[in-house]
Amino acid sequence: MTEAVLGWHKDNARKFPWRESSDVYRVLVAEKLLQQTRADQAERAYLEVIARWPDPCSLSRASPRELERVLKPLGFYRFRSRELIGIARALCRGGVSEEGIRSLKGVGDYVYAAVLASCFGKPILAIDTNVARVLARALHGRESLTRQEARRYATAFSPILEELGPRRVLYALLDLGSAVCKRINPRCGECPASGLCNYYQLGAPASASSKAR
Ligand code: SF4
Fold this sequence. Notes:
mainly alpha, Endonuclease III, domain 1, 13 helices, 61% helix, globular, binds iron/sulfur cluster
């Protein structure tokens, strides 16, 4: 299934500036901006943040008001601004180890896993709601994973991730969840994983089957 999804992704990958970087600061900025935000909106804010504050030390000295102004269109802007400046200060002070990143305020399981995969090449799968939905449907034929399953799947695919690249697999699943395995009306007929997907094989909902080619 992974190979089929990666094959599909060659022609369907979304391009975002943070996907070109393995810098911890840039990846953390991107992940914080992406939370509960459409990727195109997050992209505009990301480009402005990085243009104005290209490294953690410059952001650590930023005026919170100025950062809030940039983040306002995304919502939760005061909260995000506080967290980002806090993260930037910690990174600027130095000495934030790979494990230490998890203890930064605002870095939860998903963001931490995304940083480990994107910046350190660790074979760990970052599971957000989109990835969880794809895995739940494909592997279990249902809509969501339990907390235990999500925890287990974060490391269960380590050999595959090591072989194929954790970042590559993560982006493919994120893009599949966004473009094909949508929350409403998944496009199973266009899906590279449909041959092995429990949700589809067990009789996808009418909305999904009706889209099948
Ligand atoms: S076949 Fe349908 S439900 Fe299964 S992964 Fe693809 S889009 Fe999602």
